[in-house]
Amino acid sequence: MVSAVSPLVWIITIVGLLAVIAIDLIVIRRRQRTVTTRDATIWVGIYVALAALFAVGLFVFMPAQTGSEFVAGYVTEYSLSVDNLFVFMIIMTKFAVPPLAEDKVLYIGIILSLVLRAVFIFAGAAAIAAASWVFYILGAFLIYTAVRLAMEGENNDADFQENAALRALRRVLPLSKEYVGSQLTTRVDGRRMLTPLVLVIAAIAMANVVFALDSIPAIFGLTNDAYVIFTANALALMGLRQLYFLIGGLLKRIIYLNIGLAVILGFIGVKLLLEALHGSHIDAVGEFRIPEIGTYTSLGFIVATLAVTTAVSLIKTGVASRRSGELGEG
Predict the structure, then answer these.
(1) What per-residue confidence (pLDDT) applies to 323?
(2) Residue 326 has pLDDT above 60, yes or no
(3) Which residue, among 236, 237, 206, 229, has the nearest Cα to 87 in the 3D structure?
(4) H or E stretch at 284
(5) pLDDT for 111 beyond 80
(6) pLDDT per residue over 162-203, tens digit each?
(7) Cα 327 from Cα 330, distance rounded (Å)
(8) What is the C-alpha to C-alpha distance for residues 250 and 273, in angstroms, rounded to an integer?
(9) Over the stretch 140-157, which tens digit does the pLDDT of each residue have?
(10) How many angstroms from the chain centroid is the CA of residue 132?
(11) In angstroms, rounded to a whole number, what is the distance separating the alpha carbons of residues 178 and 78?
(12) Which end is more exposed in the chain, N or C (fewer Cβ atoms within 10 Å of the end residue's Cβ)?
């Protein structure tokens, strides 16, 4: 496994993340109301500031390359994770989750998915360390995913369908028929049962892991340092929950998000293939010298793509909204 830090730094980092998770849990337990826009704004700011401070620490105490790789990885993971929010909204609607329970459901589901993602990260890092040809597979997969995502065009709200794992859980678990606020367990006729929130948490965690099949290969295109990949994933996912409450309405206006993410995935896929060629000591094809794409170039491309995607989406939805208003007045 490739890592630029010592086991002690790993331990300190994990303890720090667990402390943040514990504080977040205390806040959730004490909150007796739905999450407001003000709450979400404050916590998104806290998590982004935490990621920024972590990046500063890497720039100060580690080689500059490590800090830049973290920033590029964090921005990539956060932007790709935004697409998860559409699925989260569909799941919440499909299962008719009580508004007061949404925060708790997202919290537990995302933490579970982070644990599962860690397994993918360490396995991927070990595979790449053992064989550089893995880059060819990851690059080709990302390009395939980019093409598939681009063909979907504008974001759509396809209905959520329960997979085989969820259907199996529904058959096996002793589930009650009704929600009981934000409680995960209840008693029905004296028997201890799980509320449907447990099934929703499983759905959130599974959806997040499925999305990791795209995002984790993408970050491997920016760095192969397991520490950077893990921390970028952790900080991006921990800030994702509050983003759900903050920009839920705005997401519907970023209609070209799928296309923007497809461009980013395609770019990183090409970068992976180029790195694979260099790893195979193929630096030129005839007179054409195979280029090398640096971390700062990757970060600039990703940020620019997200900015253009957001701007074009908002312009189009703004024009459509004005036209709709004019037709209504007419």
Answers:
(1) 59
(2) no
(3) 206
(4) strand 284-285
(5) yes
(6) 677 888 888 888 888 888 888 889 888 888 899 999 999 988
(7) 5
(8) 35
(9) 888 888 888 788 765 554
(10) 26
(11) 34
(12) C
Could you tell me the pTM of the whole model?
0.77
Residue 119: how many CB atoms within 10 A of its CB? 11
Contacts of 184 (CB under 8 A, 6+ apart): 194, 195, 197, 198
Tell me the C-alpha distance between 17 and 20, whole Å: 5
Q: Specify the pairing of strand 191-194 against strand 185-188.
A: antiparallel
CA 105/CA 26 separation, integer angstroms = 14
pLDDT over 90 percentage in the chain = 13
Predicted confidence (pLDDT) at residue 298 exceeds the cutoff of 60:
yes
Sign of the dihedral through C-alpha 44, 45, 46, 49: positive
Rounded to an integer, what distance in angstroms lies between the CA atom of residue 242 and that of residue 212? Answer: 19
DSSP 2: -
C-alpha span between 274 and 213 (Å, rounded): 21
Provide the residue type at 72 as one letter.
Answer: A
- Output the six-digit token pair for 28: 């959730």
Instruction: Give the pLDDT score at 160.
Output: 56
Residue 255 main-chain phi, psi, to 5 deg: -75, -20
Partner residues linked to 186 by β-bridges:
193
Model pLDDT, residue 285: 77
Q: Where are the alpha helices (DSSP H) in the chain?
A: 7-30, 37-61, 64-94, 102-130, 134-152, 164-172, 197-220, 226-246, 248-251, 257-279, 295-329
Round to whole Å and give the CA distance between 52 and 272.
26
Amino acid letter for position 16: G
Q: Of the candidates 158, 152, 159, 138, which has an alpha carbon nearest to the alpha carbon of residue 257?
A: 152
> What value does the mean pLDDT take over residues 69-91?
83
Instruction: State mean pLDDT over 52-80.
Output: 90
Q: Which amino acid is at 236?
A: A
Distances from the Cα of 330 to the Cαs of 2, 316, 318, in angstroms?
Answer: 64, 21, 18
Centroid of chain to Cα 182 = 24
Q: Are 230 and 73 in contact (CB under 8 A)?
A: no
Most confident of 50-64, 200-214, 241-255: 50-64
